[in-house]
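A sample follows:
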Amino acid sequence: MFFALLPAFIPAARRSLDTLTEEEILALAIGAEEEDARIYQAYAYNLRDRYPASAKVFEDMAEVEQTHKNMLIEMFRSRFGERIPLIRREHVRGFYTRRPDWLVRNLSLEKIRQQAEAMEQQAFRFYTEAAKRVSDAPTRRLLGDLALAEQGHEDIARMLEEKHVGEEERSEEDESAHRRFILTYVQPGLAGLMDGSVSTLAPIFAAAFATQDTWSTFLIGLSASVGAGISMGFTEAAHDDGRISGRGSPVRRGLASGIMTTIGGLGHTLPYLIPHFWTATILAVVVVFFELWAIAFIQNRYMETPFMRAVMQVVLGGSLVLAAGIIIGHG
């Protein structure tokens, strides 16, 4: 029983494009157009509340795909009858694939635009390559027509975008997407990086100067960094579900905060893998210097904090924490 099911899961068991008949190629095209229409409808549904103008573009693109599907069905009926063979993308080796809805639901607007463009380009390449491998003249002509139709979709998409998304709407949507990126990734990640970089300075350097044992210092820094990352990640994810604040998925914010917190602490922990105490400590201090300036730069670049104020807040504050850790360690 087990071996009987294996072909369904092994990519090599898929049929080659060269073995498909004209009837099967047409059936495959019908299914592909139907699936693409559903994907555009899903894009429109997911964008409707945040970007209504772009949602309208994808609704119209879905209608275009449905029109092409209906034309293909009529062509199939006239040549092969009413029964359309069930053949899908996953049945054909090398056929372009589409990501399921749950993997594209939270994509950014720009990413969705790129995905839509890639869909049309992939479809064009498929029909072009299929035409090269088929010797039957009517089939080659059919595939060529489908390739030209797919190539024309990109022009249709541009016209629809010009129709529904003017300069003002485009600017507003891009600004909204940028704001969502800041709230979902940059802000939690920056908070985590600051917490991981600054809050771990005192315990790590206190342990370093108290023990002058690089391995013990590394273990303390590793535990402090990972522990802080887990704590920050869960705190960020739990305190705001993003529905009212509009800050996006709590899972994504939690991951951004937790990962950056851990990275912030590990930056000046890893040098203590070096067995020589003063070499490791000097390198760790240099890393701290770059960490603090990087935080100041991110604050200025993405949070629009004046650079000198960011330097005073982060670099000066971090230096004081570092000094406190060294003094405590010497004590």
Q: What stands out?
A: The chain has two domains: 9-165, 181-330. The CA atoms of residues 202 and 325 lie 4 Å apart. The chain has twelve helices and no strands. The two ends are 71 Å apart (CA to CA).
